[in-house]
Amino acid sequence: LLVSQYDTSSNQSVLLEKKKTKSTTTAILLSAVLPGAGQFYNESYWKIPAILGLGGYWGYEWVSLNKEYKNYRNLYFESLIKFPPSGNYQYRTIRDFYRSERDRFAWYLGVLYLVNILDAYVDASLFEFSVDDNLSVLNKSGQSLKFQMKIVF
Question: Could you give the CA distance from residue 82 to residue 104 in angstroms, rounded to a whole number?
Answer without folding.
Answer: 31
